[in-house]
TrEMBL record:
Organism of this sequence: Echinicola jeungdonensis
PANTHER family for the chain: AT30094P, SPHINGOSINE-1-PHOSPHATE PHOSPHOHYDROLASE
Annotated TM spans: 27-49, 56-77, 107-128, 135-154, 160-179
InterPro entries cross-referenced by the UniProt entry: PAP2/HPO (IPR000326), PAP2/HPO_sf (IPR036938)
Keyword annotations from UniProtKB, A to Z: Membrane, Transmembrane, Transmembrane helix
One Pfam match: PAP2
Domain Phosphatidic acid phosphatase type 2/haloperoxidase: 60-175
Name listed for the protein in its UniProt record: Phosphatase PAP2 family protein
Keyword Metal-binding: no
Source species taxonomy: Bacteria, Pseudomonadati, Bacteroidota, Cytophagia, Cytophagales
Length: 195
């Protein structure tokens, strides 16, 4: 079963990675970077401060903890444990995988980019959904960042999906801890009762 899943994952990767066009390469490489998203992060900090005023420090400390858990789970625990080569490091795909610019570390399961971007998206959606319904677009942003990793040849789709799951799980856990510590931060009717 695991071998079948791995085979499907590799086939999907090879198909998706082959769908590249030269003019899109530098755009995808830029979108996968850290610094281009600083305005987005600044906007989220602004929205948090505007929404939670003096209690915003709790929300901001929580996002730091969320990213720490998300990143360390994927980079510090999973990658060294599973030792799954990134596609661009796997000799089986030499001359087949399209890798733009650089490959990154040796191992790729699970994707830290996917984990961290979905952690940020999930966490801020949980805290801000009642104040800004359109905040769910953060999931679209996280999906684009995650997809760039397949496009650039540095992650398999399963690396990205598992990374996204880890990020969302970290967001939910930290959100739950923060609202237990500071119940006044819990926005009423976030999850309306089922009737």
């Amino acid at each position: 079963m695991l071998e079948t899943l791995k085979s499907w994952d590799e086939e999907l990767f090879l198909f998706l990675n082959a769908q590249h066009v030269d003019w899109l390469d530098p755009i995808m490489y830029t979108l996968t970077g850290k610094y281009i998203w600083i305005p987005l992060y600044a906007f989220l900090v602004f929205l948090t401060i505007k929404t939670f005023k003096k209690n915003s420090i709790w929300v901001l400390l929580g996002i730091g903890l969320t990213i720490l858990i998300s990143d360390q789970t994927t980079s510090g625990i999973m990658k060294p444990f599973f030792e799954r080569l990134r596609p661009c490091h796997d000799p089986r795909w030499e001359g087949i995988v399209y890798n733009y610019q650089k490959c990154g570390g040796r191992y790729g399961f699970a994707s830290s980019h996917a984990s961290n971007s979905f952690a940020v998206a999930g966490y801020f959606v949980l805290f801000l959904i009642n104040k800004c319904k359109s905040i769910t677009w953060l999931f679209f942003w996280a999906a684009i960042v995650s997809y760039t990793r397949i496009y650039l040849g540095v992650h398999y789709p399963l690396d990205v999906l598992v990374g996204a799951f880890i990020g969302l799980l970290a967001a939910i856990i930290v959100w739950w801890i923060i609202i237990k510590l500071k119940p006044e931060l819990h926005l009423k009717h976030l999850f309306p009762p089922i009737q």
